[in-house]
């Protein structure tokens, strides 16, 4: 593999990226990873020298949205360049080879980089029936287990790979599970989001390339640098939330004035992701900015979290219906309790033995 | 032969639980504020005298018999039963250290009427034989002789004779068709016959037709004090019979706190029907006479006087403004105690406590509150409107070596009458 | 892996349904139990009206009398701090209003979060003071049984977890929110069977007290 011998710096330069542009990218990466600015030269130096790692990308039960998100951009962005210049040795949507040749490429890469390649997974793995999703006659489970065996780490891209995602939504017909449910003996980095922010992937890769280590993760296996704060805590509409100014419908005055979307079901308070700061489409906008609440797509089971348009604090059951049943039941049982009480007292009244002065004293 | 037993007591407790009781117990948050209203706590600092705690036996019966969860707990053995020992221990709390003054009922933030429940709890105590022997004896005398102090009509007749001879006033007895039938308390007959004289003077002055009733002159009701509706009923019935026999329009309750409660408020419920006559407290009558201009009094005197509101008449009876208007009539130097009217502090002897020798030491101890209250006013005379309060205060002041003359308000008014 | 979210979903779903059902049935039973015992109508001639003094007591008992306040300022102040703080944070926090809106079908305007936050701190302070008082004041100490402490805890937990959740002091957030909701469910479930019932019955108690006094021409 000829590309493998080149450093990342060389590759970038060959594609016309200036030193200034490269440093800008390093600065942005440093700030996203919450590293001090003094680290920028170190990052630059490390990236400059970094060898392009071999990456095997596996797609299971997924919608290709993640790949779309990561590959689609109008101008060749630095994120894209990073992608273009890793050695993407297997990715069945993007690669030219197909069929046997494709599988052969995967195997070759695994051999050549034994113990050093990265596996990226998008999509969940069906355990319900191996036939639900297969590649080249292998079930996803088989492919994953085989491919991961010699990998240095796995990056689970998107909520499906990270947490099971949409396929796992109730009633989970395929028995979908996440990568980390299967891979327990290798580091798994979850980069959830439906889809995840491209910058986050490149950030994780940059971190790996710079430090040779994996970034610090939260308890959901997500890089803390990107998933450390909630949408809500970084949301530019937050002052409205704090002041109690809310949009109640999508076309009321509050909506037009850009007030908080909590009452319209925004899941910003429970969602940890970088949308509010990184934004989408080269920083054009992000869901809340374009007037729709956060749906919590970077969180486990967000599909089942009680409805996108229900406020977070609202219980998910049919409360009013339950409450009316409960009232009916309460009145029923209450009437019985009342009857028992009345009987007890009436009996006491009946049993009343008149107190006379003869029986004041205890005998 | 009847006898007081635990089972009868429990049954009585059960009978007494009504919606207010259930609401009160459900609401108590153990905040302890009721203690601050009760002189038995404030003067001793002993938390066992906390008003709501005095009701533990009744509370247990309520919880175990009238709540679902209590019944479940009872089956599981998670609740403490009401036992003879408990009731014995609680006798001191429900009798010796509670005058049913209802001051606690005024402060409870959730609105519990604790005195109401003490009265009810006493029904269970009586039925289980856990009432003070002195009060039992008084009740026996009241039923057998007609007066808790054992005063028979003979004694009253002798007093009447004296008064008539001394003053030339006429005291009619058993006059059918008279308008007003005043009741007396035996304390007045024995200790304060001035009251009878004052009554005669006032009725004559106002030109009202009145009569005493030879077989229904006693107003006190030991049944109310000991907490037995059965006994109370019997005693109230005598008054009703007497009043009906003489066909009077008004029965006048004397200067006695619980007598007013028993005849004015509890009476009709005890005998199960409305009275064919009206019941007024003597102070209410005097105030009515004042309004209608039938009381001609001399210039108000300048002596500094203060007034003790008997709990049953004031806080529990709503006779609060009339005494003040009457005091204004006869005094130009009337001073209120710091807590007065609805907020007055009890003398410490109501609710049967003064008849109960077990309670004597405690009663004297807690009297300090009243003593301080009186002394604070700097008054040289104390007026009240209850013969029992008057006796208790006299004894209390003596125990604390305070010299202070006392007078009943009715007497005070009578003394200020001028005949033209 | 997904336990926090599962927990939140369970707390917001099944657990909430169960708790609310027990709460409603329980409260109704308790009210029936009380009201079924009735209050005999008095045959004595009334000296005053019952309704108005009853209503007045319902309101006036909210304020302590001067004497009691002077004797037990801590009890009164702690009670006020707690109750006012609780009412504000319970009823005027936007997410709570949304919950009521979903349950009863109507909502009302809320308060800005920093104010609600302050109210929560006040309520927590009040509760801590009340606990200290309960443990040291001899009257309260003697009166208090296990239930009183249980009720204290049941009230304290929602405030605490709510505060921690709001300030992201428990991570992840679904766990924090789930714990908060669970603590309220615990409160709801035990509410009808403990002194927490005073929330409702005190209106009855105050009314009875005021009405019985009003009948005798006294305002209690
Ligand atoms: S729009 Fe959503 S994320 Fe933004 S402040 Fe409102 S609730 Fe929070
Ligand atoms: S009625 Fe009076 S004496 Fe009895 S507990 Fe209440 S305050 Fe104390
Ligand atoms: S004041 Fe009321 S609530 Fe407080 S302890 Fe006494 S009865 Fe209970």
Weakly predicted, low-confidence segments of chain C: none
User: Helix content range of the residues of chain C, please?
Assistant: over 70%
User: Based on helices, strands and strand pairing, what is the structural class of chain B?
Assistant: mainly alpha
Largest sheet of chain B: 4 strands, parallel
* Helix amount of chain B: 40-55%
Could you say how many structural domains of chain B there are in total? Answer: 3
Number of strands of chain B: 7
Judging from the principal axes of the Cα atoms, what is the shape of chain C?
A: globular
CATH topology of the largest domain in chain B: Glutathione S-transferase Yfyf (Class Pi), Chain A, domain 2
Terminal Cα span of chain B: 62 Å
- List the total number of helices of chain B: 21
Q: What amount of the residues of chain B lies in strands?
A: 5-15%
Mean pLDDT of chain B: 94
- Secondary-structure arrangement, i.e. CATH architecture of the largest domain in chain B: Up-down Bundle
Structural Rg of chain C: 20 Å
Which molecules other than protein and nucleic acid are bound? iron/sulfur cluster
Written account of the structure:
The complex is a heterotrimer of chains A (363), B (420) and C (220). Chain A folds into two domains: 174 residues, NADH:ubiquinone oxidoreductase-like, 20kDa subunit (Rossmann fold, 3-Layer(aba) Sandwich), CATH 3.40.50.700; 132 residues, Cytochrome-c3 Hydrogenase, Chain A, domain 2. Chain A is 41% helix and 10% strand. Chain A is built from 16 helices and nine strands. Chain A has a five-stranded parallel β-sheet, with helices on both faces. In chain A, strands 4-8 form a two-stranded antiparallel sheet. In chain A, strands 5-6 form a two-stranded antiparallel ribbon. In chain A, helix 2 packs across helix 3 and helix 3 packs across helix 10. Chain A is elongated. Chain A starts with 7 loop residues before the first helix and ends in a 12-residue tail after the last helix. In chain B, helix 4 crosses helix 5, helix 14 crosses helix 15 and helix 16 packs across helix 17. Chain B has three domains: 128 residues, Fumarate Reductase Iron-sulfur Protein, Chain B, domain 2; 156 residues, Glutathione S-transferase Yfyf (Class Pi), Chain A, domain 2 (Up-down Bundle), CATH 1.20.1050; 122 residues, Rossmann fold (3-Layer(aba) Sandwich). With 420 residues, chain B is mainly alpha-helical. In chain B, strands 5-4-6-7 form a four-stranded parallel β-sheet. Chain B contains 21 helices and seven strands. The radius of gyration of chain B is 22 Å and the shape is globular. Chain C is mostly helical and 220 residues long. Chain C is 75% helix and 0% strand. The termini of chain C are far apart. Chains in contact: A-B, A-C, B-C. Chains B and C meet through helix 2, helix 7 and helix 15 of B and helix 1, helix 3, helix 4, helix 7 and helix 10 of C. The structure holds iron/sulfur cluster (3 copies). One iron/sulfur cluster binds next to loops of chain B.
